[in-house]
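Shipment paperwork, digital attachment
Item: protein structure file
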Amino acid sequence: MNTELIGIIAQIVLMVALAWPLGKYISKVYKGEKNWSDFMNPLENSLYKICGIDSKEEMNWKHFLKALLTLNFFLFLWGMLLLVCQSWLPLNPDGNSSQSFHQAFNTSISFLVNCDLQHYSGESGLTYFTQLFVVMLFQFITAATGMAAMAGIMRSMAAKSTKTIGNFWYFLVRSCTRVLLPLSLIVGFIIILQGTPMGFDGKMDITTLEGAKQTISQGPAAAIVAIKQLGTNGGGYFGANSAHPLENPSYLTNMVECISLLLIPMAMIFALGFNLKRKKLAYSIFAVMMFAFLVSTSINVYQEMHGNPRLGAMGITQHGGSMEGKEVRFGSGATALWSSATTVTSNGSVNGMHDSMMPLSGMTEMLNMQINSWFGGVGVGFLNYYVFIIITVFISGLMVGRTPELLGKKVEAREMKIATILALFHPFLILVGTALSAWMFVHASGYVAGEGGWLNNPGFHGLSEMFYEFTSSSANNGSGFEGLVDNTLFWNMSTGLVMILSRFIPIIGQVAIAGLLAKKKYIPEGAGTLKIDTATFGVMTFAVIFIIAALSFFPIQALSTIAEHLSL
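Attachment content:
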């Protein structure tokens, strides 16, 4: 076994080994049980007092959502204001200009919804001030929002019968102070020691080994890189994202950052088991997600490490596999692992260019986001899976001739309608957006994007680029096939609308389902109760998810990534 494969296996083992104790700790944090981080109580209580919040107030699902949506609406306006005015604000030693209205609209929404789709180059598109007070601020709060939503649903699932699902502000603040902040400090210190900059100096002029002059951007990168990975945000401080040597300097930082992508999403599944006192259920869900992740990783690693078959047929030796668009210091294997980890979550950061990867790697990357239920964003990954649990319970109940029940609560028509709408809403946004962009490219691309349009790669790969952009936007991922010219009015507005709809419509529906089920009468489990913590139910859930994804996306995958693969 070569060292690249050993590195891949080591990273996956460490992810799981660290996630289990972290999940146990997160469960204690949300349940208010005594733990080592209780020294944060005075700070948290001060925040509640300053903001006029009663953290002990129990909220029903409607009040919970009202608080969540109000906070996010205010932050959207905050982000828009700072981005269009950033050239006049402090901490701008490089003199970066303000963003246009439509670019600020896209950027503010993108970081607000945990997507971090970037239609600008990181170090030149923002100032230090907006990197800190828009990007980093949003990366903490949007991750905590997803975690708070899951905490509320866990509270509703754990109760036998209740009209409340906890306090949004309590879960939000604790997610920031007791989970995201301490982990970010640990990751931040590691990458600073490896060479990632953390300061406020302007660009640095250096002389390269060849004698050429080069200007290097600096700034408070380390703080933003840490939370971008841990919070499944993914936005690059530098334009090249984690392929940049200052954002990801060494193989050690690459391992730390790649583990950070999946650490909290994995831990949240274990936290579910501890919170509900149903570890077997958590292990069942984790096994399904882990299986999908390993299949995706195996395909990508094989494709990238074996190289391009067309070059092989020409007798060209590909040392290290397909190295187009990859960093030599990481290699094709570590890049392939990252591409899988970043798309089974809603992270979207890259340590190599997805646009340069083999067609089947691109297909699995898109399928991960199109399914959008394998670990996913912190908190919301399980919420997407929760929708498919509802659908699977309903289908299984019909198959055995029993009233569908989930943890002692009857799943009836209202919950099933909401779940079905949410399951179909994601592919609807992707497919409609892709169809619209394809029509625009054929009929009006030159008008909306200038001469030549927005595609640098026509044919199968050009369709993949547009398909990927809407897939990434709807999955709140943020990565892209960067052959696409995307900083245009059409792409900024269309993906902005897709991002905000695909973030908040599902959360509203998922919390509503949990709230509706929570207040129903609890029915004790009997001999005929459908067990949801078995391998059989896990396989059934996987089948439901895969069938819906295949029916939705196989036709366009056949016209893009699969057709490109067959043309090699």
